[in-house]
Amino acid sequence: MEFFSQTYVALRGPTGAPQTPTEIISKLSDRLSPATLLADRRAAVLSLKGLARDCRQEVGEMALPGLLDVLFNDAEVDAEIGKAVLETLDTLCDTEDVTSGSRESGFKYTDKVVASDKTTHFLFALLADSYVRLPTLQFLTTLLHNRRQVIQSYFLTAPAGPGSIIAVLEDKRDVIRNEAITMVQALISQSPDIQKVLAFEGAFEKLFNIITQEGGVDGGLVAQSALTCVDGLLRFNNSNQSYFRETSLPPVLCALLQFPVSLDIQTTAPQEFALQFWDTDKQANTSLIVGIMGMLVGSKGHGVQETLPYTRCLIEMALASNAPTALKIQALRLLPTNINFPLSEISLTPYVPVPDTNGEEWDRLELASALDALIELAIHGEYNGLDAGKRTKESLELRTAAASVFENFVRKDEIRQAIVQSMVPPEDPDSPQRSRTTPLLHALASPPNTASALEPADVISTHIATLMFSHLLRSSPRAKASARLIIPGPLQPTHDQASNFFVPADGTPAEPAQEEPEDEDEPQTLLQILTENLSLALLSRSRTNASDREAREWDRYVVGYLCLLSQWLWEDPKSVKDFLDAGGLGVLVEPINQTSEVDSVVPGLCSFLLGICYEYNRQPGEITRATIHPIINRLSVDMLIGQMARFREDERFKSVGPDSIVLSFPPPSLQPSVKPAVGTLDEGEIWFDWAFVDFWKSNYYTVQRGFSTDPDQLSSSAGMHLSEELNGHHADLLSGQSAEATMLIASLRDVIRQQTGEIESLQKRLNEVNNVESQVAELQKQVESLHSQLASSETKRKDVEKEQEDLLVLLDEVTSKRRKDKARLREAGLEVSEDEADDDDDDDDEE
Amino acid sequence: MAGITWHYVFKFIITGDPAVGKSSLLVRLTDQRFLANPDPTLGVEFGSKLITIPEDNKVVKLQCWDTAGQETFRAITRSYYRGAAGCLLVYDVTSRDSFEHLRTWLADVRKHADPHVSCILVGNKVDLCDEPTPSGASAPPTSSNSPNTSSSASSIIKSSKSSASPSKVKRRSREVSYEEAELWAKQEGLLFVEASAKSGLNVEQAFVDASRDILEKIKKGVFDDDRSPGVKQSLPNSALVDGSAVKSTCCA
Ligand SMILES: Nc1nc2c(ncn2[C@@H]2O[C@H](COP(=O)(O)OP(=O)(O)O)[C@@H](O)[C@H]2O)c(=O)[nH]1
Ligand SMILES: [Mg+2]
After folding, report:
1. pLDDT at B222 (0 to 100)
2. Residues in chain B closer than 8 A to A198 (CB atoms)
3. Which of A156, A239, A306 sits opposite B1 (nearest CB)?
4. What global pTM score does this model have?
């Protein structure tokens, strides 16, 4: 303070008249010249530093060159002047201040400073000087913040080299070390070369030293920025990832989370890992470590063996720990899509909080396999279903993340087959057996509660179960065949059976008793039960007294069943037959017919499923394609296609993305009519998962085309509506053709697949009855007939293909003829119709 | 996270002009593969491999960095030299220029690396040449004693052609003879080998030769004061034992 007054006195002219800042700054700038005494220069810099904030413009314009000269000449000699000049420069280049013009001038002065590599090189060299390290680092951070790429390129040619950076990371003074981490974080950003050379120089070791010194995950902000640096050195950098695994550091990541590195399959994770005290800093640091682990697990070039401890750690954290939900979601999402981990062989110990202990006491649940715990988490939610009814977005994210891991896990056909097969009851012709009731099966098959108010937790359990069961069946004929045999055991109703006889106030009669699976002698298959549950849900949703919110819950049930059934029945005539025999047709038709303006999801899905039933109804039976055809005509193909088009436009369908299936509730469109319950501000909901959206998008067109085929036609009839199609829609026809060809091939392939399956099973039986020659002969005959069937379908397929080719040729001829004709018409001065001309344009574009 | 299974870790760097095959040598060493059209953006610039030096019955872990060969990065390339125990100076036997430029690269190494760094000169891409790699074999077809400017000019044309359609290139003429390179290596005190990342010939050999040289120096006590940052010896008790890693790093 005293110093300032001195300077000002010195600067006040001989008359003592006060001067303008411009005059003062101009005088001070002159004094920066090397000709003046060091003490004067120092005084001038200190004054300018004081003025830089308020008179940035003037100081920058007049003093910047002089300040840089002082930096080069004096900073190494005199720490005080060095510190002051660095701080002044830092102020001038600062762009954090967003007031008018301030950012712009910050960039302007930065550009002047980095116009050549001289200053930057000098600054990196200056890091060796421990007295001015802090302001040097701060200034470098500012420059990096403003013009990162320029500084990075200068760094690559700086004589001081990366060694200087490593040295500052080792500085004993915390402030300096922390500032160094911040600077390094910016320096390595998006520069693989800098990342690599710093790793070579030992940056990993230095950063981990800092992290452990600070106390690991409890190390607060410093550990957090050091971990961010480690992440920055590794992400998208193959070389550094390979090098990192060469170091002794990979196990340290586990150790930081209290997770034992070498935990064999049979051993369960220790409680000190599972149960910890959490705060936000610790959560942030843990999240960074989890992120790094996930990156290393997911990147190629790492042996599975090598990353196994990480995978295990992520799984344990997600399924059997008291880590914050956000961390569990992150851990699950980071498991690789090709997850190759023996989930069913790992045992873990889930925990639940003891009520009213504020998260300080925990009960240990029974040992469970990781696979069971995963399914449990998806179906019932965290901590054994505690709070499952609340439907916070976070809890739904967690449960759907678990369902996605399940989806990835069952991608392998043998795994999904094994899981489905385990639900099939043992064969016993004398007394038909029931399936073992698993949580998945139970949630899937439990009838919706039609008696009292819907329990939100039940709806979501069943819904998620339909999603997961779809993952098991989708495009697997074998799994579908096994699933048809599932006969769920008696289901413990979640609510009192007796209340089923409750008659609602509006007098709607209760469901007929026969719909209840009470008839123990005639156990129902899963497919029958699902059909019945669908029907039940559709009836309940149309009850007039249901509130908006309740109706929406019924819709959710309906959507879950319809999506599962669509994927189950697709390409599977036997399942279609089972569904139709269970009364599925009637169930579907009604909602399509009773359309209301508001609802597009249910009619659209019912139309879709109806189309699938028609398309794949290829088994002899009571309800044939000829039975369905008139119904389709009655409803009208246009209407069905319209319903499907409306479905596609529904927000609930449109807003689903590969990584975002949890939507906000209430949705923006419903805000006014559906009030969220108090205290559930972050409520979410699920309708579709990405797998279904994908399935729909790949197949809806085939289904639409199918509506128009005649009952006796094969799924793709080449000659259909030829004349109509030629009438100006040939582009459409072309794509239709290929879609149908695909469909035909798919269905033939399916026949072949089924037959192969049958041959397989026949051969198995063949082995069993090896000795019984007559049987063998008979079976062989069967095999032969299957072979010939196979051959004949093959021939059929070829014929159809040929027919299609011919058609295309024909089409081509017609098209070109038409074009010629039109040209002639135009030449003759005749008008050619608008849309036809458009058509031609399109053609031209395509060519 | 496998256990430590080595007696020594040697840090190696690979330098030389762009396109002489540095990355290819590294990939060949670590993955036993050759990519005709390596993707430069893929950045395989670090690799490691365990080798055994039979005479000493020692297992050595090689950690190799392929340095960025661009002129603009020279400054940063130098920091790799400082930390290296071994250095592969690579040229392309069909490119005179790449050989000539090694003088500068070697000068850099001399200036910045540990004085005891073991260097090996590697003439890469011998598969492109007619004759089998000699060890005292007959003189190569191209004259090597007086390389004139026109021959190097023609090589530039050739090589640019070849990069346009590498699959059509069968063979290019040798522009650096074995004898000339051997002589230069001797004068400069470098080990020498001709190799091919494509066929794999002598690739591992180059690293083994250099590692043996480093081991000799260790035996002679050159590194007793632990000065070379590029050599690390496993701790007496933790060698070949799993799980020591956490301890040694946490309190390093
Ligand atoms: N014929 C042949 N080509 C090679 C050999 N080594 C590398 N190449 C090719 O030379 C080109 C440059 O190789 P690269 O490894 O990227 O060189 P770098 O720039 O030094 O890393 C690539 O097209 C390689 O396929 C070799 O031993 N023989
Ligand atoms: Mg390369």
Report:
1. 82
2. none
3. A306
4. 0.78
